[in-house]
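Hi there, hope your week has been kind to you so far. No rush at all, and the record is pasted right below.
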Amino acid sequence: MTRLCLPVAEWPAVDRAAWEAAHRRGGLLDEDGRAAHWAPATSSIIARGYGRFLSFLAECSDLDPCGSPAQRITRPRVEAYVLHLRQRNHSSNVTARVLQLCEAARIMASAGDWTWLRRLRSRLRRMSSPARDDRARLVPAAAILDLSNELTRRAETATDRAGWRRALLARDALMLAVLCVCPIRAKNMAQLAIGTTLQRRGDDWWVAFGPRDMKNKRPYEAPLTGLASPIDRYIHDYRPYLTARSRAADAGDALWLSSRGKPLTAKQVGQLVNRATGELGQPLNPHLFRKIVPTELAIHDPEHVGIAQPLLGHADYQTTQQAYNLGRAIDATRRHHELLRSIRAGTAVTGRSRGMVKRQKGSRRSLPKSSKRGKP
């Protein structure tokens, strides 16, 4: 049975060679490959995408081991590939697969003209819809901060519980507060280390990441305003309970520790945030915090929504704009619902305020003179 995504090790030799050449670092006189700067996660995603295309060709008995990537990626094959994906996947997943194929073609067969493939990608992107509706998943930041305060209260008052269990409550509470103030990615949350990526500057704690740590390869710094006391309390009073549970000096300077005193991974951070926010009735992952912040700015302070771009570390405002549009859509929906409720209550005002009549519950609306009975 053909594997869904053919791994690089099982690609035809020609494709493997092209992939390795694209990732090769050049010397003093040689240029880097087109994918030499890619992060491992990006490379893995594109490899799976191209592997999915190769798997499709193998399933159709159309995978020539001697062919090159440029010879494989043809219009008829891609058209059949898209039809195959549409029968099995959501439209957003189909778009993602074609985007991955487009990137693979760009780095492995750079001499080819892939204008038609980029146009197909753009067309599919316009036609696709989100696999999930984030509007139904967002929770007000105020509710998350209330939950953070509640977890902190439990940590401080549950004196009958072991110290390390109270420390876990304090850790989860601080995680939620940090994400509300500075919605960094789960990977960066796991990288927070006291004295390096988490620095005390005057009265505030700051997060500080170099370009290698960030997705867009740009340095990022932001203050954790209002969290100095909670962070100090966690570091000095609660975190030692967790470091003491490690048999070796595993904790290091990591801010977030597990119940065994080991640094948390990005996956574990996501799981803990998801579990903690489950009390709100809508579990959240760390990435949703990156949508909550600009969405609330768009609703409550639209004039300053632009500050979301540096806060989220976006290189392009268009990425932030997507969240802004989501916020405006939510705000418009809320206003529309308020209008419908007021109409049902008989208190809505329509049209211009001058010369119009405010409808009262149970009253009849006055008609313009030209519309009275007997008048043309």
The two ends are 79 Å apart (CA to CA). Confidence is low (pLDDT under 50) at residues 304-308, 349-376.
